[in-house]
Design a protein that fits this description.
The chain has helices at about 55-60, 85-105, 110-165, 170-185, 210-220, 225-240, 255-265, 285-300, 315-320, 335-340, 345-355, 360-365, 375, 400-415, and strands at about 10-20, 25-40, 40-45, 70-75, 75-80, 190-195, 275, 305-310, 320-325, 330-335, 385-390, 395-400. The longest helix has about 55 residues, at about 110-165. The two termini are about 30 Å apart. The strands form two sheets. The protein has an eight-stranded mixed β-sheet with strand order 6-7-8-3-9-10-12-11, sandwiched between helices. The chain has a domain at about 90-130. The chain has 14 helices and twelve strands. By secondary structure, it is α/β, with parallel strands linked by helices.
Length: about 425
């Protein structure tokens, strides 16, 4: 398990993803979600269908343009929304209008009116700068990343070319041009790869396995066919398939084999982060275990960091270092795997855990399901909730009264 001081690879900051549902209507698929993933860990994201897990994963990999918030990968902002900045301008404008009306009604001097106007202008200009920066980061993060790589290649070969003999120079210049062209085609976002939920829908039926797996390499600028073939064969064997499978089509494989092809397609790009979007939910139980064990082996062999999205809490507990629980677009609880199962605090988390079946008839006879009803379990009419750290590393979406109640509950458990 990663330690607290380990490098943060991905940081999701106040992510909001809203979809238009018609005139004046929108669906808040993901609403103000924040978490981070440390290098080398598996972060589990769980919740019922429709809670926003997959949308969160797709937003991270830029399949959607996010509504608001920021996503940082390797300390670079790769996604940025502008809604919060626009809302801040609207709020400042409304506040200025109310202040102006009050000042005029009270016969305030011109200096106070000008001061209020200047304050509004300052806030507006600040938020407009934030909007411009967000759009620039969102659109040009890959371009800036490629420029850095090109600059690094230029610096590397500058001294080499200067010191090269006339006989070595043509070969080195060729290598330099090839490496520079390769660097120019690199994208930061390709260091995040995704394994999709449905193994057959995510594979092109008109392409062979070799073409499917190698497509990312070709797009990235790899032209050496022999090298591509060797990389495809190596990764096929890595995921438990054989070289002969490279010439076949997706319909010739079972569900588990297709998912292995999906894993191979993501692994061949040598990513730093893999988003596994319910990779086992469409598979038989025996095949689920094989795919999970495969991901676990790849995680340790290749040093992968994984965002693991799933329904099955038992699988998530086995596979994840930390777990985030989502409900209706909100993150309601976040803790280490052991802590979450030992001390579930949010009523929805307790409800999910109570639904886990065990292969024990006596336990199943006595198991009581906990039903979660937000209207009955919470009173947020006055005291609004937010994510609070109840104990070190254990965050719960709660108000002040619930926060004190959870802390008392944990203290009681420790003293028992």
């Amino acid at each position: 398990m990663p330690n607290e001081n380990q490098e943060v690879l991905l940081k999701v900051d106040h992510l909001c993803q809203y979809f238009k549902m018609g005139p004046g209507m929108e669906l808040k698929a993901v609403n103000d979600v924040s978490f981070d993933i440390k290098k080398g860990e598996v972060f589990g994201l769980v919740g019922e269908s429709g809670c926003g897990k997959t949308t969160t994963g797709r937003s991270i990999i830029k399949l959607y343009d996010i509504t608001s918030g920021s996503i940082y990968f390797k300390d670079t902002r790769i996604c940025a929304g502008t809604r919060s900045y626009r809302d801040a301008i609207k709020a400042a404008k409304a506040k200025f209008a109310a202040t102006l009306k009050e000042l005029k009604a009270n016969g305030a001097p011109e200096e106070k009116i000008l001061a209020a106007k200047e304050e509004y202008k300052k806030v507006r200009e600040e938020q407009l700068n934030n909007i411009r920066a967000a759009k620039d980061d969102h659109k040009n993060c890959d371009k800036k990343y490629a420029e850095k790589l090109v600059a690094a290649v230029d610096a590397k070969y500058k001294s080499i070319l200067e010191k090269a003999s006339p006989e070595e120079l043509p070969t080195l210049q060729k290598e330099y041009r090839k490496e520079r062209a390769y660097a120019r085609k690199q994208k930061l976002i390709t260091q995040i790869q995704m394994i999709f939920q449905d193994p057959i829908a995510s594979l092109d039926p008109r392409m062979t396995v070799k073409e499917i797996i190698s497509e990312g390499l070709v797009i990235r600028g790899e032209k050496d066919q022999k090298k591509i073939d060797e990389m495809v064969y190596r990764v096929l064997e890595l995921v438990g398939l054989v070289r002969e499978h490279a010439g076949r089509y997706p319909h010739e494989f079972s569900g588990g084999q297709r998912q292995r092809i999906g894993v191979a397609r993501s692994v061949i790009m040598n990513p730093d982060l893999i988003i596994a979007d319910e990779p086992v939910s469409a598979l038989d139980v025996s095949i689920q275990a094989q795919v999970i064990n495969l991901l676990n082996d790849l995680r340790h062999d290749l040093g992968l960091t994984i965002l693991f999205i799933a329904h099955d809490l038992s699988v998530v507990k086995y596979f994840s270092d930390r777990i985030g629980v989502m409900y209706f677009g909100n993150m309601v609880e976040l803790a280490t795997s052991d802590e979450l199962f030992k001390n579930p605090l949010h009523p929805y988390t307790r409800s999910l855990l109570s639904a886990i079946p065990l292969p024990d008839p006596n336990y199943e006879k006595q198991r009581k399901r906990i039903t979660y009803n937000p209207l009955a379990d919470h009173d947020y009419s006055v005291d609004k909730p937010c994510m609070r750290e109840v104990s070190p590393g254990h965050f719960v979406h709660c108000n002040q009264a619930e926060f004190e109640k959870y802390q008392a509950l944990l203290a009681e458990k420790e003293n028992a």
